Amino acid sequence: MKHLTTLAALLAGVAFAGSAMACETTLRSSDTHPDGYPTVEAVKAMAKEVEAKTDGRICIEVFPSAQLGEEKDTIEQTQFGVIDMVRASFGTFNDIVPETQLFSLPYLFRSTEHMHNVLDGPIGDEVATAFASHDLVALAYYDGGSRSFYNSKHPVTKIEDLSGMKFRVMQNDVFVDMMSALGANATPMPYGEVYSSIQTGVIDGAENNWPSYDSSGHFEVAKYYTLDQHLMVPELVAMSQKTWDGLSAEDQEVIKAAATMSEAVERQLWADQEKASEEKVKAAGSEIVSEIDKAPFIEAMKPVYDKYVTTPEAKDLVKRIQETQ
Q1: Gap between the Cα atoms of 105 and 173, Å rounded
Q2: Does 199 lie in the same domain as 98?
Q3: Whose CB among 56, 163, 199, 286 lies 3.0–4.6 Å from 22's, allowing a Cys bridge?
């Protein structure tokens, strides 16, 4: 029996070695989100498709949970070709690719469908082209959800309900100015301090997407959640230009097709996760305001747009985004 066990182990080792040897090229892909997260699982789906279409010649190894570094660091490593691929938020690319800055404007997108239509059309192609001059190849646009307001005081059904309230926002000038334009007070602080700050009354609330509202436990201390969807920042999967240039034209096409396929996978996984979080917080007693007239909120953003959309090119891009059906 001992000999049989040893033989089985040897055969397993040979099989594993053979599988590893079949990968002529192994690409390393970074993600800060944990294993099982929609973006991670979507890149894994892309990897399976690439491996299948290249008969195992090209493999993509996904490193979740910031194993290779935080987003900013991994983007730089991808630019230099140290890492082959990276998944990161558009927001993290703001200092690298100026065109991405406009996607952090409040109420830029009317809905998730509108955002998809923009990214999947000519504008998405233009933005992808902008990455090329920064040693990055844009491969896929993923969902990062829509951010909405939640608070511990009362339901927010109209813009006046925000007056004087204190909301935690990320350390971002656009977000601070957004809150001021809405008549509220912005309080930038680390994400980990939000729960206790709402609980103790240091702030009245915060803003984030369904899964974050759920997983953070914020729904326990801020039960009023208003779906104003003021921010939808896309996620991007990008490849190092250096890695891309080392692939044949045929393999580039395989990777592009697999990346496009993974967009649908990620978007569905994200929608499923949102639904699960929504059901959980509703069952826990959260009060959801879904019917809201966004027009006054959008109108209030005029000074914010005037401040940050200053060049003719930026104004034209915003106009074309807003006109996309």
Answers
A1: 11
A2: no
A3: 56
Per the domain annotation, does 262 fall within a domain?
A: yes
Q: Which domain holds residue 250?
A: 18-145+233-276
79 lies in the same domain as 151: no
- How many angstroms separate the CA atoms of 286 and 126, rounded? 41
CB-based contacts of 262, cutoff 8 Å, min separation 6:
42, 43, 45, 46, 49, 140, 237
- Tell me if 29 sits within 8 A of 61, measured CB to CB: yes
- Percent composition of the chain: helix, strand, coil (DSSP 3-state, to 5): 55, 20, 30
Structure-token pair, residue 315: 């104004």
3-state class (DSSP) for residue 228: strand
pLDDT digits (tens, 9 = 90+) for 134-173: 999 999 999 999 999 999 999 999 999 999 999 999 888 8
Q: Is there a single domain that holds both residue 183 and residue 266?
A: no
* Global pTM exceeds 0.90: no
Rg of the chain taking only CA atoms, in angstroms: 22
Tell whether 209 and 310 lie within a shared domain. Answer: yes
Tell me, yes or no, whether 41 and 164 share the same domain. no
Comparing C-alpha atoms, which of 266, 291, 230, 292 is closest to residue 105? 230
Same domain, 34 and 128: yes
